[in-house]
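Hi there, hope your week has been kind to you so far. Do you reckon you could talk me through the fold, stretch by stretch? I've dropped the whole record in just underneath, so have a look:
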Amino acid sequence: MKLTLTQKVMTILLFSLGMGLAVNSLRSTPLPLIGDWSHGGFSSEGQGDIPTVPLEEAVLRFLSNEALFLDARSEADYQQGHIKGALNLPVHAGIFGKRLQEFSLTVGRERELIVYCDGIDCSLDLELASILRGLGHRNIKVLINGWSQWMMAGMPFEAE
C-alpha cells in the first residue's frame, strides 16, 4: 500500500504527538495539557508556591504601608524611576550580595514583601522572590509587570 504525501505527513504528526505525550508523562513534573497559558492565568501562583498579587491589592498594601516593595530591576532602571519607597535588589548585579546582606540584617522574615520588575516576560521578580524564600522569607508576593502597571495607574513613584 502506497501512502500519499498527506497520509505520510499525518502519520508523522500523529507519531510526534504520541511521542510528545509519552515523554511528558514520564517527566517528574509533567506539563499540564490543558490550562490557561495567558499571563492572567498565573494570577494566584507565581514560580513554585510564590503567589502573585493584583495591582489593586498591591496599591492597598502600599497605601496602608503594610508591604515593603522590592525592585528587582537593574540599578540604572531603578534610578530612572521606581515605586515610592521601594528598595532595589538587582538580582544580576555585582552589588546584589552586599545589598542582600544589608536587606537581611534590616528586614525581618515576617515582613510582607511585594517584588516587582517590568514587562510581562521579566522574570527577575520571580528570581528574587525565590532567593528570598530560600532565605526564610515566607510573606512574599510578586506584582507581575509591576513597574508598567504602577505607572499606568498613576501611582506614586520616585527617581534619583
User: Anything to note?
Assistant: The chain has a mean pLDDT of 87. The beta strands are 67-71, 82-83, 87-88, 112-116, 140-143, 157-158. Residues 5-26 form the longest helix (22 residues).
